[in-house]
Amino acid sequence: MFTVYIDDSGTAPDQKVVIAAAVIVPATKIVSLDRDWADFDAGYRFKGDFHSSICVARNPHSVFADWSDRKVRNALRRARGIMKRHASKLISMTINKDDFSAEAPAEWLKVGGRDSFTWAFRSLLNLLRTWNSKQNNPLPFEYVIDWVEPRERGEIEMLMAQFESAYPGEYSGRYSFKKRPMVPGLQCCDLLAWSAFSESRYAFLNTPMHHFASVSFRDLKENLSRTWYDDMAHTRTHLKKAIELDQADTQGEERRRIWYANYIAAQSKSKPATKGKKK
Questions:
Q1: What angle do the packed helices 69-86 and 184-205 form, to 10 degrees?
Q2: What is the mean pLDDT of residues 9-30?
């Protein structure tokens, strides 16, 4: 089977674009990926957590504080090399938050997700299904998602339940939340999300890219004749058309509305009742 590592970037309220990114690794290569990453850590001594944005910024409270430009450049190259050797596919999906807010009708949001990240994640799941369906021998996915606190998982869990209802047996029990320092695959996906986020801010907002981010994105994009990494984004025009097409499917929207109402009702029933305070 394939393990799909998923991370995000830009979910903070002050960011203007949001990214959902995935690194697909065959299960047979995970042991060698972990081994190569351990060797990488042994050589660079980043203590188990290579966090790309913190590394490039040389955060003064991190192990990267005194790293030279040369060491950062070489470390990023080494990390990308490990990803190239082991990943079968990279996918990232970008949504411009202002475009989404302007085009997404309130009624449409009620049946499938409250914010732009939810829809970036939904789009990513669809892109993953499309890629897998085109393989000569489609294999099951196991999803490893970068850690989200349990109280903040509602939208992701809703999406996974919705996809499970459409494709039984493919999502329920097949995803988990893990902490990045414990999972080299998630650290690879962090590098992908950081690179895609930097490029998307440049594309949508004309925000200058850090040189290391530019090199990283270009290197990933050009690997294997540009077929290995799909960096996808909704322009405002495309986003508007996608929403219009979705709403035009009135039967599909009604099915989602009914499903969502039933899901919310089931979630409410599953929550333990709170006891009143004794006087």
A1: 110
A2: 96
State how many domains the chain has.
Answer: 1
Instruction: Note the pTM of the prediction, 2 decimals.
Output: 0.92
Cα gap 63→55, rounded to integer Å? 8
Domain containing 212 equals 2-270
In a domain, 80, yes or no: yes
For 78-118, the pLDDT digits (tens) are: 999 999 999 999 999 999 999 999 999 888 887 778 889 99
Query: In what helix (H) or strand (E) does residue 94 lie, and over which residues does it extend?
Result: strand 89-96
Q: Is residue 115 part of a domain?
A: yes
Q: Sign (positive/negative) of CA torsion 66, 70, 193, 240?
A: positive
C-beta of residue 155 within 8 angstroms of C-beta of residue 11: no
Starting at the edge strand found earlier in the chain, the sheet holding 229-234 runs 175-178, 141-146, 2-9, 17-26, 89-96, 229-234
Q: Which two tokens stand for residue 260?
A: 């969502």
Could you tell me the CATH number of the domain that includes residue 164? 3.30.420.10
- Provide the sign of the torsion angle of the four alpha carbons 214, 219, 221, 225, taken in this order: positive
H or E element that contains 230: strand 229-234
pLDDT in tens, 47-56: 999 999 999 9
**Which tokens go with 145?**
């998602």
Lookup: tokens for 214: 């530019």
Q: Where do runs of H (alpha helix) occur along 184-274?
A: 184-205, 211-222, 236-248, 250-270
